[in-house]
Design goal:
Oligomer: single chain
CATH class of the largest domain: Mainly Beta
Number of strands: 6
Helix content: 25-40%
Order of helices and strands: HEEEEEE
CATH architecture of the largest domain: Beta Barrel
Structural class: alpha+beta
Shape: elongated
Strand content: 35-45%
Distance between the termini: 95 Å
CATH superfamily of the largest domain: Copper binding periplasmic protein CusF
Radius of gyration: 28 Å
CATH topology of the largest domain: OB fold (Dihydrolipoamide Acetyltransferase, E2P)
Largest sheet: 5 strands, mixed, barrel
Strand order of the largest sheet: 1-2-3-6-5
Number of domains: 2
Length: 128
């Protein structure tokens, strides 16, 4: 009889421990998801090639052929080689990294980094 009571209590404690652990893990998962969603809320990054520069708008095409248009305003920071440049310095075909915010259906560029184009030269072999 004593063994049955002890075994029953052991089972109850084990079930409670498993239930508490599951509840704790579920709460942590919800908290982690909420925190990560909040930290990236409204700010996105995109890399692609310039297909059009028109007034205060730029359009880029990504490697996956996604085309996005960005509005460049007075708060947009544009740089190349660590130096500040103007939107008129951006040319079709330039590779860019854009950090932007979505406001309604518009993409507002916050930072535009124009990537350097590197020229490759053939290596001359002196032993030939």
């Amino acid at each position: 009889m004593r063994k049955n009571i002890f075994l029953s209590m052991f089972i109850v404690v084990a079930v409670l421990a498993i239930a508490i652990q599951g509840f704790s893990a579920e709460t942590k998962a919800k908290t982690k998801t909420k925190a990560s969603t909040t930290s990236t809320r409204g700010t996105f990054n995109m890399t692609g090639d310039i297909t059009r520069v028109r007034g205060s708008e730029i359009t880029i095409s990504t490697k996956l052929n996604t085309i996005l248009m960005f509005i460049v305003d007075n708060n947009t920071s544009i740089s190349k080689s660590g130096k500040s440049i103007k939107i008129t310095d951006i040319k079709n075909g330039d590779s860019v990294d854009v950090t932007y915010e979505k406001k309604g259906d518009k993409n507002i560029a916050k930072y535009i980094y124009v990537q350097e184009k590197y020229t490759t030269y053939p290596i001359k072999n002196k032993n030939r």
